Amino acid sequence: MGPLAGVRVLEVGGIGPVPFCAMMLADMGADVVRVERPGSEEQESPNIGPLLRNRRSVALDLKHAAAIDALLALVSRSDVLIEGFRPGVAERLGFGPEVCLERNPRLVYGRMTGWGQDGPLAQAAGHDINYIALAGALHLIGPRGGKPVPPLNLVGDFGAGAMLLGMGVLAALIAARASGRGQVVDAAMVDGTAALLAMHFGFRARGWFRDATGENFLAGGAPYYDTYRTKDGKYVAIGAIEPQFFRALLEKLGLDVSRFAPLGYPNVHEIEGWAELRQAIASAFASRTRDEWCRILEGTDACFAPVLSLEEAASHPHNAARGTFVEVEGVLQHSPAPRFSESQPAPIRPPRQRGQDTADVLSEAGLSAGEIEHLRAIGAAG
Questions:
Q1: What is the CA radius of gyration of the chain?
Q2: What number of other Cβ atoms are within 10 A of residue 271's Cβ?
Q3: Which of 71, 88, 120, 356 is most exposed, with minimal Cβ within 10 Å?
Q4: For a pLDDT cut of 70, what percent of the chain falls above it?
Q5: Is the pLDDT of residue 25 over 60?
Q6: Please, is 299 exposed, middle or buried when counting C-beta atoms within 10 Å of its C-beta (0-12, 13-18, 19+)?
Q7: DSSP string, 185-203
Q8: Are the CB atoms for 355 and 379 separated by under 8 Å?
């Protein structure tokens, strides 16, 4: 049983950060029910992605008043509801925070958006790349002198979005259990991205910051925190920031420590000599294959790792030893994280098909077999 065993979560179906947050809560033992819009048989596709694992699925068309009534019946027995609509949409459909909290005063109502519930852009469409751009993060990521490069959708959707929502929901859940009162959690990716920049605000205040793409020392601006091509055309990553780690790297690469060591930390701006240092490191790495460098550098204090593909990462001895990756019905995915000393999660359950649990879940909420059949007959449930 995970640490959230007994917590009931209602996930109003969406994409990206809301399913990721629900997956995290489900991985930790919460009973998560995902509410999805019914679809025709022709529209259905297999649910195989890990984002939808470990929960049940109910199909409700929330444009039907009867489906909203069914949803509110689920709200009455839930601890948490999370949704990712534009501001005002849930209210127009009939399950906004005011309605839900009246039905269940202890409910934690989590709202996931890009821009937030208010502000000039609140009603505008957008995606991860837009939110991290507006918050100032995207500008810093990319090659020096080149254009900003989106870091997949890891920063906005998942780090600044889903993780922020999850933390907010759990904090509000603790407060609700102490006070008996639920509340609304406004998780905006633009806010979360700004929060993820906390360290860099500190660097800026200390004069360790350049407001330019690829020029900060954690963005590849420094030669001791970058990726390098090896003899076989693969890549390695080094992060030898601290002096003792930088010296270890130089020694393992066979470079002159007395000559290059002064070019490392705490000289976090580009200084005279960095170009020469970068070329020396690049030449050293180009002299051997990635696997050869792994034999020399892995497990040392040089702050080294090979740059691996997903398939390679899954079979790497360290990840294999920890069980970081797992295969569920032929689908490679991550194992639940973080890990707990006492609470052990149940085995991963693959995603359910859309609406597969509609009858069971609605029955648990108090709807009769006749009422459930009526919802299906009018197209409000699938």
A1: 25
A2: 12
A3: 120
A4: 96
A5: yes
A6: exposed
A7: EEEEHHHHHHHHTHHHHHH
A8: no
> Alpha helix locations (H) across the chain?
17-27, 65-76, 89-93, 97-103, 128-134, 163-179, 189-196, 198-206, 243-253, 257-260, 274-285, 290-297, 310-315, 317-322, 358-364, 369-377
**Burial zone of 370 (CB within 10 Å; 0-12 exposed, 13-18 middle, 19+ buried):** exposed
Could you give the 3-state DSSP secondary structure of residue 105? coil
Q: What is the mean pLDDT of residues 271-289?
A: 92
Note whether 36 and 332 are within 8 A (CB): no
Q: What is the pLDDT of residue 94?
A: 98
Cα(265)–Cα(262) distance, rounded to whole angstroms?
8
Q: What is the mean pLDDT of residues 95-117?
A: 98
CB-CB contact of 165 with 156 (8 Å) = no
User: Is 46's pLDDT higher than 70?
Assistant: no
Strand order in the sheet with 56-59: 56-59, 31-36, 8-12, 80-83, 108-113, 183-188
The angle subtended at Cα 237 by Cα 236 and Cα 241, nearest 5°, is 145
Whether pLDDT at 42 is above 50: no
- Pairing relation of β-strands 235-239 and 304-306? antiparallel
- Which range (68-72, 135-139, 214-218, 335-339) has the least confidence? 214-218
Residue closest to 8 by CA, chosen among 114, 81, 65, 67: 81
Query: Cα–Cα distance between 332 and 55 in angstroms, integer?
Result: 18
Local structure of residue 156 (DSSP, 8 states)? I
- CA dist 82 and 227 (Å) reads 39
Burial class (CB in 10 A: 0-12, 13-18, 19+), 298: middle
* Contact by Cβ (8 Å): 334, 326: yes
- Count of Cβ atoms closer than 10 Å to residue 234 Cβ: 18
First to last CA, the chain: 31
What's residue 332's pLDDT? 96
% of the chain exceeding 90 in pLDDT: 86
**Is residue 183 helix, strand or coil?**
strand
Instruction: Provide the H-helix boundaries in 117-197.
Output: 128-134, 163-179, 189-196
Catalytic residues: 127, 157
pTM, full prediction: 0.94
Residues sharing a CB contact under 8 Å with residue 137, sequence separation 6 or more, in sequence order: 155, 193, 196, 197
What Cα–Cα distance (Å) separates residue 267 from each residue in 51, 63, 235, 251, 332? 42, 59, 25, 19, 42
